[in-house]
Amino acid sequence: MGRAPVEHVGGGEEPAGSPRRRSRPLVQIALPIVIGFALALAASISIAWVAGFAQVGHRLADLNWIWLLPAVAAEALAYAGYTFAYREVVRADGGLELPRLDWVALVSSGFGLFVMRGGFAHDVKKLQEAGSDAREARVRVLALGALEYLLLAPAACACAVFLIAHDRLHGALTWPWAIGVPAGFLAAGLVGLYVHPRLTAIRANRQFVAEALDGIALLPRIAADSLNRGLAAMLGMAIYWFSEIFMLWATLKTFGDSPSIPALVIGFATGYALTRRTLPLAGAGAADAFLPFALNWTGIALAPALLAVFAYRVFNAWLPVLPALIGLRRLSASD
Questions:
Q1: Which residues lie closer than 8 Å to 315 by C-beta, 6 or more apart?
Q2: Residues 174, 156 contacting (CB under 8 angstroms)
Q3: How far is the C-alpha of 275 from the C-alpha of 123, rounded, in Å?
Q4: Where are the domains of the chain?
Q5: Contact 233, 150 (CB under 8 A)
Q6: Average pLDDT in the 165-179 region?
Q7: What pLDDT, on a 0 to 100 scale, did the predictor assign at position 206?
Q8: What is the DSSP string of 106-166?
Q9: d(CA 29, CA 22)
Q10: Per-residue pLDDT at 212 exceeds 80
C-alpha cells in the first residue's frame, strides 16, 4: 500500500515536511467543515424564522438539560454498533481483515463533515487503499447501505401500520411506508431471484446495477458463511439505529416534547430517507432542514423540533469531528 509521490513545479518530490504538503490536507479538511457549518446554520436560522424566534427562545429558556447526558451516551453506542456491523460486512465471505482500531478509524472518518462526496464514497476509497480491489470495495459498501435500510425500513413500516390502525397520524406520512416497504422488498426479491443470475452477460454495460445487486446478494451470503457473523452484523446495525432514534427522543425531551415512539420512528425515517453517511458533508444543511419538518409532520411543534434536531446534530455530526480527524490521520499514516 502507498501513495504516489507528490510532484511540484520543477520536478521531483516535495519533502514530507514541506509547507505545501502540510497545508494542502488542512485546506481540504477545513473548507468542507466551514461549508457544512454555514449550510447547517443557514438551515436552522431559516426554520427558526418560520417557527417564530419568540417560540424558539421560549423553548430554549425552558430546556431540561439533564436529557442531554443520555444523548451523548447514545451517540457513543451508535458508533460502536455501526463499527461492529461495518466490520462484519467488510470481512465476511473472504473479505478484508484489518486491525481493530482500523475499523474504528474507517467508521469515524466516514462520518466526518469534511467528506465532500459522502461517507460511502470515502469508504470505497479507503477500502481500496487497505487492499481491496475497486469492484469488491464498491460491492461491500453497497451491502452496508443495504443493511442500513434492511433494518430501518421494516421498523418504519411496522410503525406506519400501527399508526394507520389507530388513526393517529396523517396518511400521507404513513401509507408510503406501509405500502412502499413491502413492495420494495418484493421487487428486490424478484430481481435477486430472476434478474441477478442473468446479469453476468451484461455486467460490463450495467456495472452499477450489477454491483448493487451483488451488494444485496452479499448479505445472505454473510449469514450462510457464518450465522453468528450475519447476526452480529444485523445486531450492530440495530444498535446503531436504536441509539440514533433514542438520541433524537432525548433531545426532544430536552426541549419539552415527548412524541409516541411509532410517530418518532416515522419522522426520523422520513427525515433521514438518505442517511448522513450517504449524503455529502454528513448531511450538513439537508438533514438540518428536512428532519425538523418531518418531525413537525408527526405532530411535534416546529420550535422544539428545530431545537431538538439542532442538539441532535451537534452530537451526531459536530462533536464526532475530532474522532473523525483522528481516524483519518490513522488511516493516512497506515498508507
A1: 71, 72, 74, 75, 247, 251
A2: no
A3: 14
A4: 26-334
A5: no
A6: 83
A7: 60
A8: HHHHHT-TT-TT-HHHHHHHHHHHTT--HHHHHHHHHHHHHHHHHHHHHHHHHHHHHHHHT
A9: 12
A10: no
The cell numbers describing 247, all together, are 438520541
The pLDDT value given to residue 335: 58
**How confident is the model over 121-137, as pLDDT tens digits?**
888 888 888 888 888 88
Tell me how far apart the alpha carbons of residues 180 and 10 are, in angstroms, rounded to a whole number.
59
Longest dimension (CA), the chain: 73
What are the backbone dihedrals phi and psi of residue 131, each rounded to the nearest 5 degrees, phi first? 125, -5
C-alpha cell at 40: 447547517
C-alpha 43 chain-centroid distance: 19
Phi, psi (rounded to 5 degrees) for 132 = -80, 145
Round to whole Å and give the CA distance between 74 and 259.
18
Choose among 105, 134, 138, 154: nearest CA to 266.
Answer: 154
- Phi/psi of residue 95, each to 5°? -85, -165
- The C-alpha cell that represents 237 in the structure block: 446495525
User: How far apart are the C-alpha atoms of 174 and 313, rounded to whole Å?
Assistant: 25
CB 295 within 8 A of CB 272: no
Question: Are 282 and 117 in contact, with CB atoms under 8 Å apart?
Answer: no
Lowest mean pLDDT among 59-63, 265-269, 274-278, 309-313: 274-278
Mean pLDDT of 235-240: 95
Which of 126, 134, 119 minimizes the C-alpha distance to 98? 126
Instruction: State the DSSP string of 195-263.
Output: IGGG-GGGTTTSHHHHHHHHHHHHHHHHHHH-HHHHHHHHHHHHHHHHHHHHHHHHHHHHTT----HHH
Q: Which three cell numbers stand for residue 258?
A: 415527548
State the distance between the two ends of the chain, measured CA to CA, in whole angstroms: 6
Q: Residue 202 and residue 191: Cα distance in Å, rounded?
A: 15
Q: Contact at 8 Å (CB) between 277 and 118?
A: yes
Distance CA 109, CA 331 (A): 9
Degrees, nearest 5: CA angle 292-296-300 = 110
Averaged pLDDT for residues 261-274? 88
